[in-house]
Amino acid sequence: MPYTRITGLGHYVPEQVITNQYLSTLMDTTDEWITERTGIKERRWIDPAKDTVANMAAKAARMALERAGLKETDIEFIVFATITPDYFFPGSGVLLQRELGLEGIGALDIRNACSGFIYALSVADQYIRTGTYKTILVIGAEIQSTALDVTTRGRNTAVIFGDGAGAAIVQASARPGVLSTHLHADGRFAEELYVRDPGSSRPREERQPEQILDTTHYKVVMNGNQVFKHAIVRFSEAIEEALAANNLNINDLSLLIPHQANLRISQYIQQKMNLNNNQVYNNIMRYGNTTAASIPIAMSEAWAEGKIRENDVICLAAFGSGFTWASALIRW
Protein backbone atom coordinates (compact mmCIF):
# COMPACT_ATOMS: atom_id res chain seq x y z
CA MET A 1 0.00 0.00 0.00
CA PRO A 2 1.48 3.39 -0.97
CA TYR A 3 1.89 6.29 1.41
CA THR A 4 0.72 9.85 0.78
CA ARG A 5 3.18 12.73 0.56
CA ILE A 6 2.63 16.44 0.05
CA THR A 7 5.01 17.34 -2.77
CA GLY A 8 3.98 20.92 -3.51
CA LEU A 9 2.32 23.85 -1.73
CA GLY A 10 0.95 27.10 -3.09
CA HIS A 11 -1.26 30.01 -2.13
CA TYR A 12 -2.88 33.16 -3.44
CA VAL A 13 -4.31 36.16 -1.60
CA PRO A 14 -6.04 39.15 -3.19
CA GLU A 15 -4.08 42.36 -3.68
CA GLN A 16 -6.45 44.57 -1.66
CA VAL A 17 -5.17 44.98 1.92
CA ILE A 18 -7.84 45.93 4.47
CA THR A 19 -6.34 47.38 7.64
CA ASN A 20 -7.96 47.77 11.03
CA GLN A 21 -7.68 51.51 10.55
CA TYR A 22 -9.75 51.28 7.36
CA LEU A 23 -12.44 49.23 9.12
CA SER A 24 -12.66 51.93 11.78
CA THR A 25 -13.95 54.27 9.06
CA LEU A 26 -16.81 51.86 8.30
CA MET A 27 -17.90 50.88 11.81
CA ASP A 28 -17.46 51.73 15.46
CA THR A 29 -14.16 49.97 16.11
CA THR A 30 -10.47 50.65 16.54
CA ASP A 31 -7.20 48.93 15.76
CA GLU A 32 -6.73 48.33 19.49
CA TRP A 33 -10.19 46.74 19.88
CA ILE A 34 -9.65 44.33 16.97
CA THR A 35 -6.06 43.46 17.86
CA GLU A 36 -6.89 42.77 21.51
CA ARG A 37 -9.73 40.38 20.66
CA THR A 38 -8.40 38.63 17.56
CA GLY A 39 -4.72 39.46 17.00
CA ILE A 40 -5.59 40.53 13.44
CA LYS A 41 -3.96 43.66 11.99
CA GLU A 42 -5.06 43.33 8.35
CA ARG A 43 -6.78 40.98 5.94
CA ARG A 44 -7.20 40.64 2.15
CA TRP A 45 -10.49 41.25 0.37
CA ILE A 46 -11.17 40.44 -3.26
CA ASP A 47 -11.81 42.71 -6.19
CA PRO A 48 -15.17 41.31 -7.44
CA ALA A 49 -14.25 42.29 -10.99
CA LYS A 50 -11.08 40.22 -10.84
CA ASP A 51 -11.17 37.43 -8.24
CA THR A 52 -13.33 34.32 -7.91
CA VAL A 53 -13.03 31.34 -5.61
CA ALA A 54 -12.10 29.17 -8.60
CA ASN A 55 -9.50 31.46 -10.16
CA MET A 56 -7.84 32.14 -6.81
CA ALA A 57 -7.66 28.37 -6.33
CA ALA A 58 -6.15 27.99 -9.81
CA LYS A 59 -3.40 30.51 -9.00
CA ALA A 60 -2.60 28.67 -5.77
CA ALA A 61 -2.66 25.34 -7.63
CA ARG A 62 -0.23 26.54 -10.30
CA MET A 63 2.22 27.66 -7.61
CA ALA A 64 1.95 24.26 -5.92
CA LEU A 65 2.45 22.45 -9.23
CA GLU A 66 5.53 24.51 -10.06
CA ARG A 67 7.05 23.79 -6.65
CA ALA A 68 6.31 20.08 -7.13
CA GLY A 69 7.86 20.08 -10.60
CA LEU A 70 4.56 19.00 -12.17
CA LYS A 71 2.14 20.28 -14.80
CA GLU A 72 -1.65 20.59 -14.79
CA THR A 73 -2.18 17.37 -16.73
CA ASP A 74 -0.46 15.37 -13.98
CA ILE A 75 -3.49 15.97 -11.72
CA GLU A 76 -5.86 12.99 -11.63
CA PHE A 77 -8.45 14.21 -9.12
CA ILE A 78 -9.48 17.41 -7.29
CA VAL A 79 -10.72 17.73 -3.71
CA PHE A 80 -11.95 21.28 -3.12
CA ALA A 81 -12.82 22.59 0.36
CA THR A 82 -14.93 25.75 0.56
CA ILE A 83 -18.13 27.05 2.14
CA THR A 84 -18.23 30.02 -0.24
CA PRO A 85 -18.47 28.47 -3.73
CA ASP A 86 -18.84 30.75 -6.72
CA TYR A 87 -22.35 29.36 -7.30
CA PHE A 88 -24.99 27.88 -5.01
CA PHE A 89 -24.43 24.88 -7.27
CA PRO A 90 -22.43 23.42 -8.92
CA GLY A 91 -19.49 23.45 -6.55
CA SER A 92 -16.25 25.27 -7.31
CA GLY A 93 -14.38 22.00 -7.89
CA VAL A 94 -15.67 21.74 -11.45
CA LEU A 95 -14.96 25.42 -12.04
CA LEU A 96 -11.35 24.89 -10.96
CA GLN A 97 -11.17 21.86 -13.24
CA ARG A 98 -12.27 24.14 -16.08
CA GLU A 99 -9.75 26.84 -15.10
CA LEU A 100 -6.94 24.28 -15.25
CA GLY A 101 -8.12 22.73 -18.53
CA LEU A 102 -8.59 19.28 -17.01
CA GLU A 103 -11.71 18.06 -18.75
CA GLY A 104 -12.92 14.70 -17.55
CA ILE A 105 -11.18 14.28 -14.19
CA GLY A 106 -13.29 14.02 -11.02
CA ALA A 107 -13.85 16.99 -8.70
CA LEU A 108 -15.17 16.55 -5.17
CA ASP A 109 -16.41 19.45 -3.01
CA ILE A 110 -16.04 19.47 0.77
CA ARG A 111 -18.20 21.74 2.98
CA ASN A 112 -16.67 21.46 6.44
CA ALA A 113 -15.85 25.13 6.94
CA CYS A 114 -12.71 25.75 9.01
CA SER A 115 -11.93 22.02 9.19
CA GLY A 116 -12.49 21.64 5.46
CA PHE A 117 -8.89 21.44 4.30
CA ILE A 118 -8.00 18.65 6.74
CA TYR A 119 -11.18 16.77 5.79
CA ALA A 120 -10.18 17.19 2.13
CA LEU A 121 -6.62 16.03 2.83
CA SER A 122 -8.01 12.97 4.61
CA VAL A 123 -10.17 12.09 1.61
CA ALA A 124 -7.19 12.48 -0.75
CA ASP A 125 -5.05 10.36 1.58
CA GLN A 126 -7.54 7.48 1.36
CA TYR A 127 -7.64 7.63 -2.44
CA ILE A 128 -3.84 7.57 -2.58
CA ARG A 129 -3.46 4.76 -0.06
CA THR A 130 -5.96 2.55 -1.87
CA GLY A 131 -4.21 3.12 -5.17
CA THR A 132 -7.19 4.83 -6.81
CA TYR A 133 -5.12 7.90 -7.75
CA LYS A 134 -1.43 8.81 -7.67
CA THR A 135 -1.62 12.61 -7.87
CA ILE A 136 -4.41 14.68 -6.29
CA LEU A 137 -4.89 18.44 -5.99
CA VAL A 138 -6.27 19.48 -2.59
CA ILE A 139 -7.64 23.01 -2.31
CA GLY A 140 -8.97 25.32 0.39
CA ALA A 141 -10.37 28.62 -0.92
CA GLU A 142 -12.84 31.20 0.34
CA ILE A 143 -14.40 34.57 -0.40
CA GLN A 144 -15.97 35.85 2.83
CA SER A 145 -15.64 39.59 2.32
CA THR A 146 -18.60 40.09 -0.02
CA ALA A 147 -21.03 38.59 2.53
CA LEU A 148 -19.85 40.60 5.53
CA ASP A 149 -21.98 43.24 7.22
CA VAL A 150 -19.39 46.03 7.38
CA THR A 151 -21.41 48.18 9.79
CA THR A 152 -21.23 48.36 13.56
CA ARG A 153 -24.05 45.80 13.71
CA GLY A 154 -21.83 43.20 12.02
CA ARG A 155 -18.58 44.23 13.68
CA ASN A 156 -17.95 41.02 15.63
CA THR A 157 -17.62 38.95 12.46
CA ALA A 158 -16.71 41.58 9.86
CA VAL A 159 -13.32 42.26 11.46
CA ILE A 160 -12.36 38.57 11.48
CA PHE A 161 -12.68 37.21 7.96
CA GLY A 162 -10.51 37.48 4.87
CA ASP A 163 -10.26 35.94 1.42
CA GLY A 164 -7.66 33.66 -0.17
CA ALA A 165 -6.76 30.23 -1.47
CA GLY A 166 -4.23 27.53 -0.64
CA ALA A 167 -3.27 24.35 -2.49
CA ALA A 168 -1.42 21.12 -1.84
CA ILE A 169 -0.29 18.47 -4.31
CA VAL A 170 -0.47 15.03 -2.73
CA GLN A 171 1.15 12.03 -4.38
CA ALA A 172 1.74 8.36 -3.84
CA SER A 173 5.10 7.64 -2.23
CA ALA A 174 7.15 4.70 -1.03
CA ARG A 175 7.94 6.45 2.25
CA PRO A 176 5.56 7.81 4.91
CA GLY A 177 4.26 11.35 4.56
CA VAL A 178 0.73 11.79 5.90
CA LEU A 179 0.95 9.60 9.00
CA SER A 180 -2.69 9.87 10.07
CA THR A 181 -5.78 12.06 9.94
CA HIS A 182 -8.47 12.41 12.59
CA LEU A 183 -11.96 13.80 11.90
CA HIS A 184 -14.71 14.72 14.39
CA ALA A 185 -18.01 16.57 14.56
CA ASP A 186 -20.75 17.47 17.05
CA GLY A 187 -23.89 18.72 15.33
CA ARG A 188 -25.52 19.70 18.61
CA PHE A 189 -23.74 23.02 18.23
CA ALA A 190 -24.47 23.61 14.53
CA GLU A 191 -26.36 26.87 15.17
CA GLU A 192 -23.60 28.37 17.31
CA LEU A 193 -21.69 29.32 14.14
CA TYR A 194 -23.71 29.24 10.91
CA VAL A 195 -25.37 31.05 8.03
CA ARG A 196 -29.02 30.04 7.84
CA ASP A 197 -29.83 30.92 4.24
CA PRO A 198 -30.09 30.13 1.40
CA GLY A 199 -31.18 26.89 3.03
CA SER A 200 -33.63 24.39 1.58
CA SER A 201 -35.77 23.51 4.60
CA ARG A 202 -38.12 26.48 4.16
CA PRO A 203 -41.62 27.04 2.81
CA ARG A 204 -41.59 27.57 -0.94
CA GLU A 205 -42.39 31.27 -0.64
CA GLU A 206 -39.32 31.83 1.54
CA ARG A 207 -37.04 30.38 -1.15
CA GLN A 208 -38.30 32.56 -3.99
CA PRO A 209 -35.90 35.50 -4.50
CA GLU A 210 -38.71 37.93 -5.41
CA GLN A 211 -40.33 37.23 -2.04
CA ILE A 212 -37.24 37.70 0.09
CA LEU A 213 -37.39 41.01 1.93
CA ASP A 214 -35.64 40.16 5.17
CA THR A 215 -32.01 39.16 4.50
CA THR A 216 -31.12 38.78 8.19
CA HIS A 217 -30.60 35.04 7.90
CA TYR A 218 -28.02 35.44 5.14
CA LYS A 219 -25.49 36.82 7.65
CA VAL A 220 -23.01 34.90 9.79
CA VAL A 221 -24.29 34.12 13.27
CA MET A 222 -21.58 33.32 15.80
CA ASN A 223 -21.71 32.71 19.52
CA GLY A 224 -18.11 33.76 20.14
CA ASN A 225 -17.94 32.56 23.73
CA GLN A 226 -19.20 29.09 22.85
CA VAL A 227 -16.84 28.83 19.89
CA PHE A 228 -13.83 29.83 21.99
CA LYS A 229 -14.77 27.51 24.86
CA HIS A 230 -15.10 24.48 22.59
CA ALA A 231 -12.16 25.38 20.34
CA ILE A 232 -9.53 25.41 23.07
CA VAL A 233 -10.64 21.95 24.21
CA ARG A 234 -11.02 20.33 20.79
CA PHE A 235 -7.80 21.76 19.38
CA SER A 236 -5.80 20.18 22.19
CA GLU A 237 -7.65 16.88 21.92
CA ALA A 238 -7.09 16.66 18.17
CA ILE A 239 -3.37 17.38 18.46
CA GLU A 240 -2.88 14.87 21.27
CA GLU A 241 -4.91 12.26 19.37
CA ALA A 242 -2.71 12.61 16.28
CA LEU A 243 0.50 12.30 18.30
CA ALA A 244 -0.75 9.33 20.33
CA ALA A 245 -1.89 7.50 17.17
CA ASN A 246 1.71 7.58 15.96
CA ASN A 247 3.39 6.84 19.32
CA LEU A 248 4.82 10.36 19.47
CA ASN A 249 4.64 13.12 22.06
CA ILE A 250 4.67 16.89 22.04
CA ASN A 251 8.47 16.97 22.14
CA ASP A 252 8.56 15.20 18.76
CA LEU A 253 6.53 17.94 17.13
CA SER A 254 8.51 20.23 14.80
CA LEU A 255 5.68 22.58 13.86
CA LEU A 256 2.00 23.05 14.64
CA ILE A 257 -0.02 24.81 11.96
CA PRO A 258 -3.44 25.55 13.45
CA HIS A 259 -6.43 26.89 11.60
CA GLN A 260 -6.11 30.66 11.80
CA ALA A 261 -9.34 31.40 13.67
CA ASN A 262 -8.13 33.76 16.37
CA LEU A 263 -4.60 34.47 17.55
CA ARG A 264 -5.78 34.23 21.17
CA ILE A 265 -6.90 30.63 20.61
CA SER A 266 -3.54 29.71 19.03
CA GLN A 267 -1.65 31.36 21.88
CA TYR A 268 -3.77 29.57 24.48
CA ILE A 269 -3.07 26.20 22.83
CA GLN A 270 0.64 27.01 22.56
CA GLN A 271 0.83 27.84 26.26
CA LYS A 272 -1.29 24.86 27.33
CA MET A 273 0.89 22.43 25.34
CA ASN A 274 4.20 24.08 26.31
CA LEU A 275 5.19 24.81 22.72
CA ASN A 276 7.79 27.45 21.95
CA ASN A 277 7.34 30.18 19.35
CA ASN A 278 9.29 28.21 16.74
CA GLN A 279 6.87 25.28 17.06
CA VAL A 280 3.71 27.20 16.11
CA TYR A 281 3.07 29.04 12.83
CA ASN A 282 0.58 31.91 12.75
CA ASN A 283 -0.20 34.35 9.95
CA ILE A 284 -3.67 35.47 11.02
CA MET A 285 -2.18 38.89 11.75
CA ARG A 286 -1.81 39.46 7.98
CA TYR A 287 -4.77 37.57 6.53
CA GLY A 288 -7.49 37.18 9.15
CA ASN A 289 -9.57 34.02 9.20
CA THR A 290 -9.75 32.58 5.68
CA THR A 291 -11.74 29.52 6.80
CA ALA A 292 -10.81 26.44 4.70
CA ALA A 293 -7.95 28.35 3.06
CA SER A 294 -6.16 29.25 6.28
CA ILE A 295 -4.16 26.05 6.84
CA PRO A 296 -2.89 25.60 3.25
CA ILE A 297 -1.97 29.31 3.02
CA ALA A 298 -0.04 29.02 6.30
CA MET A 299 1.63 25.78 5.18
CA SER A 300 2.71 27.35 1.90
CA GLU A 301 4.19 30.37 3.66
CA ALA A 302 5.88 28.30 6.36
CA TRP A 303 7.50 26.10 3.72
CA ALA A 304 8.68 29.14 1.73
CA GLU A 305 10.18 30.62 4.90
CA GLY A 306 12.20 27.45 5.55
CA LYS A 307 10.19 26.49 8.61
CA ILE A 308 9.22 23.10 7.17
CA ARG A 309 12.20 20.88 6.49
CA GLU A 310 12.89 17.30 5.49
CA ASN A 311 11.84 14.76 8.15
CA ASP A 312 10.03 17.36 10.29
CA VAL A 313 6.88 16.25 12.09
CA ILE A 314 4.08 18.68 11.21
CA CYS A 315 0.67 18.77 12.88
CA LEU A 316 -2.33 20.44 11.27
CA ALA A 317 -5.32 21.15 13.52
CA ALA A 318 -8.63 22.89 12.98
CA PHE A 319 -11.92 23.66 14.70
CA GLY A 320 -14.97 25.41 13.31
CA SER A 321 -18.60 25.50 12.30
CA GLY A 322 -20.54 22.31 12.76
CA PHE A 323 -18.94 22.01 15.23
CA THR A 324 -16.24 20.07 13.39
CA TRP A 325 -12.63 19.55 14.35
CA ALA A 326 -9.78 17.62 12.81
CA SER A 327 -6.05 17.00 12.83
CA ALA A 328 -3.40 15.52 10.57
CA LEU A 329 0.13 14.44 11.39
CA ILE A 330 2.70 14.59 8.62
CA ARG A 331 6.31 13.44 8.31
CA TRP A 332 7.78 15.87 5.81
Give the gist of this structure:
The protein contains ten helices and 13 strands. It has helices at 20-23, 31-38, 53-68, 92-99, 116-129, 155-158, 224-245, 263-272, 284-287, 294-304; strands spanning 3-12, 16-19, 42-45, 77-81, 106-110, 135-142, 164-173, 178-185, 193-194, 221-222, 255-258, 313-320, 324-331.
How would you describe this protein?
- With 332 residues, this protein is of the alpha/beta class.
- The chain has 2 domains: 3-174, 3-Layer(aba) Sandwich (Peroxisomal Thiolase, Chain A, domain 1); 179-331, Thiolase/Chalcone synthase (Peroxisomal Thiolase, Chain A, domain 1).
- The protein has 10 helices and 13 strands.
- The chain has helices at 20-23, 31-38, 53-68, 92-99, 116-129, 155-158, 224-245, 263-272, 284-287, 294-304; strands at residues 3-12, 16-19, 42-45, 77-81, 106-110, 135-142, 164-173, 178-185, 193-194, 221-222, 255-258, 313-320, 324-331.
- The strands form 4 sheets. A 5-stranded mixed β-sheet has the order 1-7-6-4-5, sandwiched between helices.
- A hairpin with a 3-residue loop joins strand 12 (313-320) and strand 13 (324-331).
- Helix 7 crosses helix 8 (263-272).
- The longest helix has 22 residues, at 224-245.
- The two termini are 19 Å apart.
- The model has no long low-confidence stretch (mean pLDDT 95).
